[in-house]
Give the backbone structure.
Amino acid sequence: MRHAKAELLAPGQRDYDRPLASRGRQDAARMGKALRAMKIFPDAVVASPARRARETAEEVVKALKHAEEIRWDKSLYAAAGDAWLAALRKLEAKIDVVAVVAHTPGIEDAAALVVGASTGFIDCPTAGIIAIEADPPSWKGLEPGAGALRWFLRPKLLEALE
């Protein structure tokens, strides 16, 4: 999942510290409710600790009504797709479903890498979720091309359905 819409960078503010805009909070909650409606409850949530990603992960977990600990991974901030794979490879084998909340272009690069597609095959908007299914023997064995795109959800689609 890409973090939800953030406030614009204020003078003197670090990019890392940008909070969610009110629209971002609404979209993060909307996406969490959609996951709950689809009965998708992550066994683990891994997120960039940058403020906008952190706030997105917290809103999604709150909307899911699923008390899962969020694991903060600094390597996901401004990271390329291979850093996402490295973060996933650290997961315990008992974890079946994981939600990763971070930034672009990393999310798009990681999705392309896991499904074996070319970079740029998907354009993920803020709060967008790319669902990929992979069947590695363990997370440690996750390799490029090991997954398949199952679905892609944009908050504007859900808003249109409300």
Notes: The mean pLDDT is 93. The chain has one domain: 15-161. Strands lie at 44-47, 70-72, 98-101, 129-134, 147-153.
